[in-house]
From TrEMBL:
Keyword check for Transmembrane helix: yes
Biased composition range(s): Basic and acidic residues: 229-238
Keywords (A to Z) from UniProt: Membrane, Transmembrane, Transmembrane helix
Protein name: Uncharacterized protein
Region (Disordered): 225-244
Transmembrane segments: 12-34, 65-87, 99-125, 161-186
């Protein structure tokens, strides 16, 4: 009988950290939804106070909904991936471990990629030469009363504390993903996920004496019996007189 392998502490810690990362991702989803609803209210308030054009208001509302939808979709997919892979590798599945490492890499890519993409976009825009024609035909003029009022309400609103919470949760997911990937690749975890060779089947040792083996031989071939030897009989000679 094969005894089950004991799960090392590294795999146990990675399992709970993976679930913690999934919980942090769901917190991010909740914060994005709350922030989107709150920001939609600010858009309506700014539009009422400034008598803004409908095009500006519609554009800002669409941007708010699109950003929230993309952020929630990415976070939900990563959270489901984390939970779906944590259970298999917690039970010793090497495939689950590989998928968990892939999910950790995706989380790192999302966290680093979003920051890096924003930085690259800023550097790209800053490196472009100024175009006077573009400045005159701006889609959102700098003197737009709607956007000025919207940014003012956003900075001084009651939900201003929410702005640093989402990045903090993203950093938490980033650190948890690194920890899970490292814990699943250390030597104790490698030995746990290594497939052991199957031992040969048990054959009971025979007790008692071995059964005798009889070999078959062809029956002997018997021929005709030999003829008996001839006996010589003494006959009296005719010239000799018989005894009286």
């Amino acid at each position: 009988m094969i005894e089950p392998k004991q799960r090392p502490a590294t795999v146990t810690v990675a399992f709970w950290l993976q679930l913690g990362a999934a919980a942090a991702l769901m917190v991010i989803v909740a914060l994005i939804v709350v922030d989107s609803i709150y920001y939609a209210g600010l858009i309506d308030r700014a539009a009422e106070l400034t008598n803004a054009e409908p095009a500006e208001v519609s554009s800002e509302r669409a941007s708010n909904v699109a950003g929230a939808a993309v952020g929630c979709a990415v976070a939900v997919v990563l959270a489901v991936w984390s939970v779906a892979t944590a259970v298999p590798f917690g039970r010793g599945s090497n495939v689950g471990r590989v998928l968990a490492c892939v999910g950790a890499g995706l989380q790192l890519l999302c966290c680093v990629g979003s920051t890096g993409a924003g930085s690259l976009m800023f550097l790209f825009v800053a490196s472009l030469p100024e175009d006077p024609a573009l400045a005159e035909d701006e889609v959102w003029p700098a003197d737009s009363a709607f956007y000025e009022k919207l940014y003012e309400l956003d900075e001084s609103g009651t939900m201003a504390w929410l702005a640093p919470v989402v990045p903090l949760a993203a950093v938490t997911v980033f650190l948890l993903s690194i920890a899970v990937g490292v814990l699943l690749l250390v030597p104790p975890s490698n030995r746990y996920f290594r497939t052991e060779p199957v031992p040969p089947a048990y054959v009971p040792y025979p007790y008692g004496y071995a059964v005798p083996v009889y070999y078959a031989y062809p029956p002997p071939q018997y021929g005709a019996p030999p003829a008996p030897p001839k006996r010589e009989v003494d006959h009296p000679s005719p010239d000799v007189d018989p005894p009286c």
